[in-house]
Amino acid sequence: MLKENRVLGIVNTTIRTLETWFLPLFDLFIRFWISLIFWRSGVLKFQSWDSAVTLFTYEHPVPFLPPEGAAIFSIIFELSCPILLTFGFLTRLAVIPLITMTLVIQFTYMNIVEHYYWLMLLVYLLLKGPGVLSIDYYLRRKFLSP
User: Fold this and answer.
1) Among 10, 121, 31, which Cα is nearest to 81's?
2) Is residue 100 part of a domain?
3) Domain that includes residue 122, residue range
4) Residue 129 region, left (φ>0) first, then alpha (ψ -120 to 50), else beta?
C-alpha cells in the first residue's frame, strides 16, 4: 500500500510538472508552427499578385467569391491571423478563418493528409485557447478574474 501511494505521488507530481512547464511551451510551439505555415503562404501571394489570382481562378476557386476577392481575403487572413496567433491575441477568433481556408484548400485543391494535421491543431487552439504564454491569458486574468 505504501509503495502504491508513493508511485501515485510520483506520477501525480510528474503530471503536474508537465502541465505547468511543458504544456505552455507546447501551446506556444503549436501557435508558432501553424502561424509560420500561413504566414509564408500569405507573403508568397502578396509578392506575386498575378499568381495568387491565377491560383484562385484555376487551381482552387472559392465558391461565391471572384478570384480577386478570394486572393485579397486570403492575403489579409494569411498575414493578419498568424500575427494574432503568434502573440496569442484573439486566438480563438484568429483560427476561424484559418480553419475555413484549410477546409477550402483540402476539398477544392489538394487532398493531402497534412491539412488534417493543420485542422487538428487549429481546432485544438479554438477549443483550448492559446495557453498561459499569451496576451489572451494575461487579459483574461487581468480583467475577468474575481
Assistant:
1) 31
2) yes
3) 26-144
4) left
| Number of domains observed in the structure of the chain | 1
34 close to 118: Cβ distance less than 8 angstroms = yes
Instruction: Say if residues 60 and 109 touch (Cβ distance below 8 Å).
Output: yes
Residue 16 lies in a domain: no
Q: Domain for residue 62, yes or no?
A: yes
Rg of the chain's alpha carbons, rounded to an integer? 20
Contacts of 91 (CB under 8 A, 6+ apart): 31, 84, 85, 125, 129, 130, 134, 136
Angle formed by the axes of helices 113-128 and 91-108, nearest 10° = 160
**Residue 1: pLDDT band with limits 50, 70, 90:** low
Give residue 60's region: left, alpha or beta (phi > 0; psi -120 to 50): beta
Amino acid (one-letter) located at 125: L
What confidence tens digit (pLDDT) does each residue in 36-68 have?
A: 999 999 999 999 999 999 988 988 788 788 999
**DSSP summary character for residue 65:** S
Evaluate whether residue 75 is within a structural domain.
yes
pTM of the model: 0.84
